[in-house]
Amino acid sequence: MQEVKLIGENVYLRPITYDDTDLIVKWRNQENVIKYFFYRGEFTKESHERWIKERIETGEVVQFLVCSKDNDRPLGCTYIRDIDHDNRKAEYGVFIGEEDARGHGIGKEILKLTVDYAFKELKLHRIYARVRETNMPSLYSFLHCGFEKEALLKDSVYCDGEYLNVVILGILNPED
Fold this sequence. Notes:
alpha+beta, 8 strands
């Protein structure tokens, strides 16, 4: 993958590397992070390295480490996954691994940087996201950044002993 650095007001994004594995595994196994993921299994060094090899190195996923501009401190990850070049679409995801970085508006900044990259550099037409209906901070961020609510999938995911509703949100490339 070409070396890319996306620079925002408070954060910058750079491609993840194998060297980031231990940090990402630590974040992904934190209860306050995993509770928002649909996949609830244990996240391991081996599974993450397999993800890099099979998904990122093949171009099916583009994943960035989110870092603070002030001190280069890693804060989380953002990714564009299941990239479908034929239909020019992909799914967006993000997580903030550092608890003290949440709730300060960087999620919106990360979203804008990543979607802008997907539209301008990957030439995608559509980005979509799946969010738990109860995850109000994420829903607000998406709607604030121009995504539209496209569907509500009732009882779509069985997680922690209960069925969850999932909201599908999408945004189209304004230059297409």
